[in-house]
Automatic annotation (TrEMBL):
Residue ranges annotated for the CSC1/OSCA1-like 7TM region domain, each copy included: 372-644
Cellular component GO terms, alphabetical: plasma membrane
Domain CSC1/OSCA1-like N-terminal transmembrane: 7-178
Name of the protein in question: ERD (Early-responsive to dehydration stress) family protein isoform 2
GO MF annotations, alphabetized: calcium-activated cation channel activity
Family the entry assigns: Belongs to the CSC1 (TC 1.A.17) family.
Organism of provenance: Hibiscus syriacus (Rose of Sharon)
CSC1/OSCA1-like cytosolic domain ranges (all copies): 199-361
Species classification: Eukaryota, Viridiplantae, Streptophyta, Embryophyta, Tracheophyta
Key words of the record: Calcium, Ion channel, Ion transport, Membrane, Transmembrane, Transmembrane helix, Transport
Chain segments carrying region Disordered: 726-771
Compositionally biased spans, kind Polar residues: 745-762
Chain segments annotated as transmembrane: 6-28, 108-125, 157-176, 374-398, 418-445, 466-485, 514-533, 573-603, 625-645, 652-669
């Protein structure tokens, strides 16, 4: 069991690690050759250029102004200077609202920390329950500050109940204000942002098969009939997944060719060689340049054949389409209404913005999505619960007792006080962190299999599962398995009636583990985030071996975007720990506050200077954030009910159950009041935006703007322009042909070809040739 001195040693180590990371960052970011690594966002926006330094050659690579090193922490106030509205304009609403999550943590836990330390810590510390009642029980110094130190049946427990009410009401008040603020920010952002294709476009899936018409013709006829005044244009979805893989493979080959050509240009005496076997480790040795040129030519032929197939094969067209309208109002009506009698057919929803589309999943048949999601739900269940055994085992091993039992030869080493403190205060957290390192990748693969059509929805689903996994395996398993293993001897030697009491007292004793986890994952992890060691190394490797043009350099320095699917569940775990331990072990709260404060400053700096926004969802993830904080509150109520029931205070249960009911009522109120702003677009807002835009730009032609917005990126060149061959295909399909259906009642509008109404058409029309 970790003592206060162990926690102090661990805190010192983590603070020292964080300080070293900050110093390293302060030095590295000042060097001219690292400027593109630590400020790439400004380069990509065209607002910053490489620092030019005249004089000695060394000045081009090393900053010799020693006065700048004395101001190594000036990036912190600089990160806080940018106002929120400017930040939204600079980085988008998603990034700004993500930062507000850290601010909410500070707003909630700073007052709670002061209140808990002023009231609960003295109430807990001035008791002697752990010394008098459970002399045979394993405990630590820090447990004397927790609820475990209060005697059974004591009237002092009413203080904890009152504090639970106070903490819950304060949290709900902050959440209410923030939900209202974020909802207003979202509506203001949508009303004020510039014209975007997704504002006028819906995605239509599960189109019913039609033997008489192609998918494109069927879509156009349907919307001309049912949305005659607002329909503008459409783009069918092609299954270009194989083509995209081939292009990606060719690009990888081209990068290797560039590398070998650069290597040869620097040493003409010897042609570079490579082996053709597995990973280049075995097989026949050949000329690397000739080999890659041959492979690239072969791939280029395959790409041409596959491109031709996609353009001409009707089977490559999926029963889905992006449909654009003349106004936002028309798109809102279509996206938010049922189109046909069958509720599972012709399904419409708002199209994600073009950057947000996950093209690979558009080729998945809609009918298979329900099956895929059921399979992944079952797989996630087994993944979560199969992880319980190894995590519990690793947690047991990562303690002094576990190490001495499994590795007895280390006992002389573990008896050294400093090493013992490091193991007790540092090892459990770092082991758990390492154990979960591949989990986000696994969860993202599962989300992709489920068939979500946007990157934002993929990340939200992955984040939801990551959060549930953390609740079960990081929180519940660490609490239950950890306390049970540590108290195993006590369980064996006591009556069954005493076991619930032991568990009730043992649960808060896991606070020491979570304190170490917060310091490892939170303090040191956040400091490592700003150092950006991996992007730094990768950039210089790419810059040295692959970069030939300025476009290559931009690709090499692109840092990617903020990983919402990993960072948001991490925040929510700290909300959960803070809520649960606020009334149980208030000693944990200062560590939570330090995390939120440090993370807010670091990620504000990263969002302003580093991360390039991958998409913009206008804070669509906020209801998930709100709901998870509510879950943290409910878990804290359940934990307190279970704990007090072991303390002979069963009469407190109705009060805490009532508190949980009030919390659920608050959640339903917020959901009904504010969540519609995140899932629906008010027709009034859409009409206002359309009217204002028509008044400002009465002659703007919307069709050319939307025509190519949702073309698969594989059919665009390096400058983002649609390739001529695919553009010609679109021109052929953009003309409305007379209906081929035997029944003409579904096409009452005049034909764009003949100008006559559908009633004047012949019974059948010869089918035109497919380009």
């Amino acid at each position: 069991m970790a003592t206060l001195s162990d926690i102090g040693v661990a805190a010192g180590i983590n603070l020292l690690s964080a300080f070293i990371f900050f110093i390293a960052f302060a030095i590295l970011r000042l060097q001219p050759f690292n400027d593109r690594v630590y400020f790439p966002k400004w380069y990509l926006k065209g607002l910053r250029s490489s620092p030019s330094r005249s004089g000695a050659f060394v000045k081009k690579f090393v900053n010799l102004d020693f006065r700048s090193y004395l101001r190594f922490l000036n990036w912190m106030p600089e990160a806080l200077k940018m106002p929120e509205l400017e930040l939204i304009d600079h980085a988008g609403l998603d990034s700004a609202v993500y930062l507000r999550t850290y601010l909410i943590g500070l707003k909630i836990f700073v007052p709670i920390t002061f209140l808990a330390w002023a009231i609960l810590v003295p109430v807990n510390y001035t008791n002697k329950a752990l010394e008098l009642q459970l002399r045979n029980f394993t405990s630590s110094d820090i447990d004397k500050l927790s609820i475990s130190n209060v005697p059974d049946g004591s009237d002092r427990f009413w203080t904890h109940i009152v504090m639970a009410y106070a903490f819950t009401f304060w949290t709900c008040f902050v959440l209410l204000k923030e939900y209202e603020k974020v909802a207003n920010l979202r509506l203001q952002f949508i009303a004020s942002e510039k014209r975007r294709p997704d504002q006028f476009t819906v995605i239509v899936r599960n189109l019913p098969p039609d033997t008489d018409e192609s998918v494109s013709e069927s879509v156009e006829h349907f919307f001309l009939v049912n949305h005659p005044d607002t329909y503008l244009t459409h783009q069918v979805v092609c299954n270009a997944n194989k083509l995209a893989k081939l292009v990606k493979k060719r690009k990888s080959m081209q990068n290797w060719l560039d590398y070998y050509q650069l290597k040869y240009s620097r040493n003409n005496a010897k042609r570079p060689l490579m082996k053709t076997g597995f990973l280049g480790l075995c097989g026949k040795q050949v000329d690397a340049i000739d080999r890659h040129i041959s492979e690239i030519d072969k791939l280029s032929n395959e790409i041409a054949e596959e491109r031709e197939r996609v353009l001409k094969d009707p089977k490559a067209i999926m029963p889905a389409a992006f449909v654009s309208f003349k106004s936002r109002w028309g798109a809102a009506v279509c996206a938010q209404t049922q189109q046909v009698r069958n509720p599972t057919s012709m399904l419409t929803e708002w199209a994600p913005e073009p950057r947000d589309v996950y093209w690979q999943n558009l080729a998945i048949p809609y009918v298979s999505i329900a099956v895929r999601r059921l399979i992944m739900a079952v797989a996630f269940f087994f993944l979560t619960f199969f992880f319980i055994i190894p995590i519990a085992s690793v947690q047991a091993l990562a303690t002094i007792e576990g190490l001495e039992k499994e590795l007895p030869f280390l006992k002389p080493l573990t008896e050294v006080k400093f090493i013992r403190s490091v193991i007790q205060g540092f090892l459990p957290g770092i082991v758990l962190k390492i154990f979960l390192i591949f989990l986000p990748t696994i969860l993202m693969i599962m989300s992709k299999f489920e068939g979500f059509t946007s990157i934002s929805s993929l990340q939200r689903r992955s984040a939801t599962r990551y959060y549930l996994f953390n609740v079960v395996n990081v929180f519940l398993v660490s609490v239950v398995a950890g306390s049970a293993m540590e108290q195993l001897d006590t369980f064996i030697n006591q009556s069954a009636n005493e076991i619930p009491k032991t568990i009730g007292v043992g649960v808060p004793m896991r606070a020491t583990f979570f304190i170490t986890y917060i310091m490892v994952d939170g303090w040191a992890g956040i400091a490592a985030e700003i150092l950006m060691l991996k992007p730094l190394i990768f950039y210089h490797l790419k810059n040295f071996f692959l970069v030939k043009t300025e476009k290559d350099r931009e690709e090499a320095m692109d840092p990617g975007s903020l990983g919402f699917n990993t960072e948001e569940p991490r925040i929510q775990l700290y909300f959960l720990l803070g809520m649960v331990y606020a009334t149980v072990t208030p000693a944990l709260l200062p560590f939570i506050v330090v995390f939120f404060g440090l993370a807010y400053v670091v990620f504000r700096h990263q969002i302003i200077n580093v991360y390039n926004q991958e998409y913009e969802s206008a804070a669509a993830f906020w209801p998930d954030v709100h709901g998870r904080i509510i879950i943290a509150l409910l878990v804290s109520h359940v934990a307190l009910i279970g704990l007090l029931s072991t303390k002979h205070l069963v009469q407190s249960a109705p009060l805490l159950v009532a508190l949980a009911v009030l919390t659920i009522w608050f959640y339903t109120f917020c959901k009904a009041r504010y969540e519609p702003a995140f899932v629906r677009y008010p027709l009034q807002e859409a009409m206002m935006k359309d009217t204002l835009e028509r008044a400002k730009e009465p002659n703007f032609n919307l069709k050319p703007y939307l025509k190519h917005a949702y073309i698969h990126p594989i059919f665009k060149d390096n400058d983002g322009e649609v390739e001529e061959e695919f553009s010609n295909k679109l021109e052929d399909e953009s003309v409305l042909v007379p209906t081929k259906r035997q029944s003409r009642r579904n096409t009452p509008v005049p034909s764009k070809i003949s100008g006559a109404s559908s009633s004047s058409l012949p019974e059948t029309v010869p089918e035109r040739s497919v380009p």
